[in-house]
Each structure stands twice: as structure tokens, then as C-alpha cells.
Amino acid sequence: MLRSVIRAAPRVNVLRAAICRPQILTTVRTYQVATAKTVLKTSYDSVEDYSSYKHNLFTHRLPESSAEQSAPLVALHSRLNLPSTFALSTLSQCLNLLFKDDGLANNFGLNTLGKTMLSYYVTEYLLIHYPRLPMSVHNAAVDSLMGTSALYEIGKSWGITVDTTSKLDKFLGEENEFLKYGKLRYISDAEKEKVKETGVEELVDGVTEHSREAEAYASAVRAIIGGLYTHSGEDTAKKFIEDHILSRKIPLDQMFQFSKPSAELVRLCDKLGFDQPISIRLMAETGRASSHPQYLTGVFVGTEKLGEAIGSSLNESKTRAVINALLAYYLYSPINAQGDKIKVPSETNYKFEGIIGIGDVAI
Amino acid sequence: MYIRQLVTGTFRTVKLTPKLSPLTTTRSIYLHKGPRVAGLKRDPQEALVNSQGLKYELTDDNIKHIKTYLGDKYSIPDDIVLQVLTHKSFGNGIKPYNEKLAAMGSKLLSFYLAKHVTKSANKDSFAINGRNLDVLGSPISRELGGLFTLGVFAKQQGLNQVMFWTTRNANLGFESSGELRISAQMMYALIGAVNFYHGKEVAELFIQERLIDQLEKITVDLVSGKAE
């Protein structure tokens, strides 16, 4: 008995400590501060002196005179119709992803700059033109415009080719030494020399040869956008993004997947503050007793029809009608008084004419 | 606990008169007060209150911090101010919240900051056309527009005094309760709202005039380990 009392005592203390513990706990830092990429060996005079940052991994940039002698590089420059202000040496740097390429600077900075710029313009385009997209669809749309696979396709269509021959092969084949400056360089010499078994693919951490290639192409495309901004200014780069990225059609209506469409519509109408409840009504039907009946169902709020659809069963037509109503809401794209697309904030003489998305509903 | 004890709500009767129909239907909605019961609609009077006990509504008191901060030059409509202050977690997302505004603001801020940090270059750097891109990807460049910097900024400027959001435990600290993250998102949304209403040029001027100096100070402290 005594033993059990002794054993119980500390428990009481623990309980008391838990009750008496002050409610405001000491601050615990959980925030992870970004760290530098050590491989680049970046040095600087002081943290806030942005101009002093330097990647010591690299020793030089490609001289313009060498870049001019690379036929594929000059060809790519004119194929993309890049302005003359865009230096060929920078274009060559855009195609270099290697961290160890005889000290030649790679596209790390250009890629980062291009990515931030592209992100802004793509987001702005979608938020203004499709303000009501649910966030998951919005993100999928961003991905389909500027994700790795989209940029890979674009890079391929620009005719960028990969440098696959090793130093030794270049020497034996008497290849022009400047040729590689116009090709996409992401495979190290050691890898190039590895004997490959055809039909066998190495898969390490989900990274395949194909996904590495796709990422390399995407990086080059982003870097070219970054380079265009650096050399020719924001307006030119923006035009380039509009022509090459935003001009692509994306099948937004196919990106939706509704798990509980009716519940979502009810909740949405609640959020929009409609006074009257949703009603789903059968508007017309034919052949109920036959093997191929057709039902036309409408979704209404009071006297306003939100959507309608035909189905071969009552349930099917109801679900289709609800989905049509939801799609009509989510895919809304504002137009101005003249019936044209409205302006985005980066355009001159911008005036806000659209709407701002109020957010998705939880179901 | 018996269900009868739980039921302490009010009944609200709504009369519905469709414009074209002579019929009048009556809907009775039971709004529940007290502890949550699955399937019962909660009384908005009680549900739409933030952790400080402030009611969700468009009042001068709720939006005055933001309105004074923006001034006339960068003013945005009152209902948008309320949307800026409302997080997705509040009321299960039933009120307009700031997710889309924040998406716009965060992208604009990152882009502006990328331009800002690469503006000048040393003689011996690998500058391209006078821009030093080597600073991109460094801790300072990444943290300038980061959650910590923006969250601390909002707190310092007193912009996060009124926010509508739900936390698991309001008694925890600034960072662990999630307030830091929500404040940062509110700041992104604010930049986004200025961009929506005034265009990119003015929004960039807004960042330059009102934010950048303070953001740099906070970030330098954070990166050099001086932040508390």
C-alpha cells in the first residue's frame, strides 16, 4: 500500500504541473532559414552588399568571340528571333547546366531570374483571366503553362540539341571545339563515357534519363527568358513570354474532378449568399418506359437557372447539370465593355475591370 | 450529454417570395449555438469570431490599420481590405479569403526582389549586362520575400492586429501558433490587392516606398543570426 502511495505521488505532481503550467509557452524557432548552395562556393563582402556576391566555383564567362564561332548557337539565336542586344555568350551560358565545365559559368542565376519572371506573368495572366479557378486547378494550370514538361516541349520545338559526345570522342571525331557552346550541356564527361546498354534504363530516386533531360531543357528555356530580361529589358521579355508561353491553349475544363458536385454547389451558393435554396428540377423527358430514356434537368436558384444537362437516367442528368453549373461559375473569364479580354496589371494604362477570386469552398 | 442539453440555438425564419411567382414559401433554419454537433448549422454570430473574440464584419475598427497604412495613394476598397485580412482557415472558408490575392502578391514580390538584388554589380563579378546574378539563390535573396521577413514586418508595423483566422492554439507564440505564416500571407495579399487595383507599376512603387528598407533590415538580422 505504502509503495503504491509513493508511486502515485509523482503522478500527482505531474498532473499539477500540467494544470499549473503557464499557458504562454516559450517561443520555439521552427522556421528554417534558407541556406546557401555550398557547391557554388559563393563569397561576398557583406551580407547586404548584393553587388559583391560571386560564385568562386567559376573562373570565367565564355568570350563573345568564341560564342560567335559556334554555328548552332548563332542558328538558335536567329531562330528564336532574339534581339541583337542579347549576347551570344549569354545564350551559350543559358544552355550550360554543368557545375564543372572547366570553370565556365553556368545558368544558375539566369534560370532563377527567368523562373521568378515567368511565375509572375503566368500567375497574373491566370488570376486576371480566370479569377474563379479553384486553387488546385489554378496550380495545375500554372504547371501546364510553365511546368517542366511544358517547357521541355517548348525547348525541343526550338531545336535545342543535347551535347552527348565526350571530350575524347570530340577529339577523335575532329569535332569543331566551338560546336558544344550551342548545345545543351548537362551530362558530365564521366557519364558520357559510360558504356550504355540499350533498352536498359537506370532509375535512381525516381529520376530517369528522360526526366533529367526534361528538367535540363526546362532550365534552359527559363534561363533564356532570364537572359532576355537582363539584356533587352522587361518589355521584350514579357512579349517573348506572351508569344511562346501564354499563347498556348490549356484545356482548363478538363482539369476539374468533382467528388461531391451537389454538396459543392450548395456550399458555393451559401458562400455567395443567395437567399433562396438550390432546386433541381426535371425540365423535359422522353422515353421513360423505353430502353433509351432522355431526361433534361436544370439547376435553379429561385427563378435563375444555373445550369442544365441531358442524361440517360434521372441521376445522371442531375449530376451533369450540377457539374455544368459549377463549371460555368469556375471557368468565368471577364471581358470589358467592348467585349475584349481585360487588361492585366503589367499593361500600360491598366484599369481594374475584373473580379478577385473569393476562394474555394470546403466540402 | 443529452442532445437536448446541447440544443441551445435559435430558429431563424426566412420568407421567400420568388419575383415571378405568387407563391410564398417559408423556410425555417435552425442555427445551433454551443458545442459543435455534426450536421447542425452553426450560428454565424457565434462561429464567425476570431481568436481575439472579434466579430467578422466590415467595421472601421477592423480595417483601420490597413487603410491608414495604405493611405490615399495605394487605397483599395473596404471589402477587399476585409478579404485581405481573412485567411482560408476562418469559418471553414465560407467568407471571401485572401488566397488568390496572396498568390498575386507573392509572385510580384519575388519578381521585384529578384530585380532589386541584381541591380548593381562589382567589377570582378560575372555580371551580365551590369547585373550581378550570382546573388540569386543566396540566403539573403531567398529570405527577403520569405514568410519570416514578411510576418515579422506585419507585426512590427502593427498590420496584423486584426486578422480573421483560426488557430489550433492561440496561446502559443507568434511563430508556433501559425500567426507568422498567416501574417506573411496577409502581407502578400496586401501587395496583391494593390497590384490588382493600381497596376504593376504602382504596386512596385509601393514595395519600394513602404516595404523594401524594413524588409532588408529584418532579413539581414535573420540571415546573420541576429533575429530573436
TrEMBL record, chain A:
<dbReference type="InterPro" id="IPR036389">
    <property type="entry name" value="RNase_III_sf"/>
</dbReference>
<dbReference type="GO" id="GO:0005739">
    <property type="term" value="C:mitochondrion"/>
</dbReference>
<feature type="domain" description="RNase III">
    <location>
        <begin position="110"/>
        <end position="233"/>
    </location>
</feature>
<dbReference type="GO" id="GO:0003723">
    <property type="term" value="F:RNA binding"/>
</dbReference>
<dbReference type="Pfam" id="PF00636">
    <property type="entry name" value="Ribonuclease_3"/>
</dbReference>
<protein>
    <recommendedName>
        <fullName>RNase III domain-containing protein</fullName>
    </recommendedName>
</protein>
<dbReference type="GO" id="GO:0004525">
    <property type="term" value="F:ribonuclease III activity"/>
</dbReference>
<dbReference type="GO" id="GO:0006396">
    <property type="term" value="P:RNA processing"/>
</dbReference>
<dbReference type="InterPro" id="IPR000999">
    <property type="entry name" value="RNase_III_dom"/>
</dbReference>
<dbReference type="GO" id="GO:0003735">
    <property type="term" value="F:structural constituent of ribosome"/>
</dbReference>
<keyword id="KW-0694">RNA-binding</keyword>
Automatic annotation (TrEMBL), chain B:
<dbReference type="InterPro" id="IPR000999">
    <property type="entry name" value="RNase_III_dom"/>
</dbReference>
<dbReference type="GO" id="GO:0032543">
    <property type="term" value="P:mitochondrial translation"/>
</dbReference>
<dbReference type="GO" id="GO:0006396">
    <property type="term" value="P:RNA processing"/>
</dbReference>
<protein>
    <recommendedName>
        <fullName>RNase III domain-containing protein</fullName>
    </recommendedName>
</protein>
<dbReference type="InterPro" id="IPR040030">
    <property type="entry name" value="Ribosomal_mL57"/>
</dbReference>
<dbReference type="GO" id="GO:0005762">
    <property type="term" value="C:mitochondrial large ribosomal subunit"/>
</dbReference>
<dbReference type="InterPro" id="IPR036389">
    <property type="entry name" value="RNase_III_sf"/>
</dbReference>
<dbReference type="GO" id="GO:0004525">
    <property type="term" value="F:ribonuclease III activity"/>
</dbReference>
<dbReference type="Pfam" id="PF14622">
    <property type="entry name" value="Ribonucleas_3_3"/>
</dbReference>
<feature type="domain" description="RNase III">
    <location>
        <begin position="78"/>
        <end position="214"/>
    </location>
</feature>
<dbReference type="GO" id="GO:0003735">
    <property type="term" value="F:structural constituent of ribosome"/>
</dbReference>
